[in-house]
């Protein structure tokens, strides 16, 4: 996500870091590189000019030029400007008592129907009772696709076979929801290959007839400035409440995400980050800005872990750690938990400082390493996993290596490294998973807002959580 933008900005900032003392002249040269990076990431030209102007006003002032670390101070200025560009955002769906109506619209191919399912799952997980409505009567198989999605998620889908009027379908669906216990209706409306008068008129009639509580436009983040232009046209016709930007996991540029709020005044509320139905995230400008600047996004990682990790298993592991127990069985279970979060490069990209390491080793290498470690542990007996240092001798190493398809020295290396890892895990046992990750997030965010703060100062301010 945002790879090209991240690489471009980091390259520009690195060029400044290599110049020693910053002057107004070389600072402006650096800002030209920032401008070039934004344009190459497909950010709208007026947005780029405005953004660079804001950064320049702050960056060329005495506060930056005379600071103890002017380059880091400039990173802080860019961070704050990115947050201001994309925010603020209200993530509430504004669900009310009775039946709430959410209307999704967008062009064909934007991922609108799949997003209906993702939104339905999110609402269901918040203990509400959603119902999907197949109001796209234009695209062949749209109704069938929504029925399949509803079946997979066990969410009811309202359809009217042979219907010709989507306005009547939406109106009837709301009555059906009121009579059958659903309290959130999600309307999947028709799209077109392009913005046209017929599409807008149909959506306007649905809007007038059912008065949805929220209207969201689903836009394909990979279409760049076309996404911004379509958002502008839809907003003029419907007065959108927010945008859901899809396919950002495959978008190497990300310029639309930076442009759309400034150009349309409509905030991005959610982003699609994968094909699975749980790959819908709230859009947090501060977290996205942190990702763009290579500082990771620990809070999102914590939220995903809370949702996807087996909490009972985590509780048991925490109890074992508090007693000073950590075995290869525990390590194997942690690998399985991490695998639930998705591709390893995505996970590592959320951890401050780990994004560059992942690029160097490659996703395939990282995934292969996890698989290799799991294979070695699986080839051990339960007793060997509990007491590897005491039991695994030369003969056992050969047997384990043969079972895992590796060399004996690789088994020996895992056992040696595990001993050090176990000591670290025991020392950190009192912090808990959330505490450890939040401590890292607090440090990275503080450094972004106050780049001249030292690590020692941060440790002093946050107490034993960072020094453990």
Structure write-up:
The longest helix is centred in the last third of the chain and has 20 residues, at about 410-425. It is built from 25 helices and eight strands. An eight-stranded mixed beta sheet has the order 3-2-4-1-5-6-7-8, sandwiched between helices. Strand 7 and strand 8 form a beta hairpin. Residues about 355-360, about 360-365 and about 435-468 have low confidence and may be disordered. It has helices at about 5-15, 25-40, 45-60, 60-65, 70-85, 110-125, 140-155, 165-180, 195-210, 225-240, 255-265, 285-290, 300-310, 310-320, 330-340, 345-350, 355-360, 365-380, 380-385, 390, 395-405, 410-425, 430-450, 455-460, 465; strands spanning about 100-105, 130-135, 155-160, 185-190, 215-220, 240-245, 270, 280. The protein is about 60% helix and about 10% strand. It has about 475 residues and is α/β, with parallel strands linked by helices. The protein is flat and about 75 Å long.
